[in-house]
Design goal:
Layout lengths: L6 E5 L14 E2 L6 E3 L10 E3 L6
Antiparallel strand pairs: 1-2, 3-4
């Protein structure tokens, strides 16, 4: 999938990610991997998009 083609199933506003669609607030990947950096996450801040790649 092109980085300019939004995947309308995955909203994303992280413009510093290389997978962010250039024109819209969506991810350009077909799917993403979501993970956590906590043993037992209790808040949304404890989850991470593990598909993130810094631009």
């Amino acid at each position: 999938m092109s980085k300019n083609t939004p995947n309308y199933n995955i909203r994303c506003c992280v413009t510093s990610c290389a997978n962010h669609c250039a024109q819209e607030e969506y991810c350009a990947l077909d799917c993403v991997c979501i993970g956590t950096h906590e043993a037992h996450p209790q808040m949304e801040e404890c989850t991470d998009c593990q598909s993130f790649i810094r631009k």
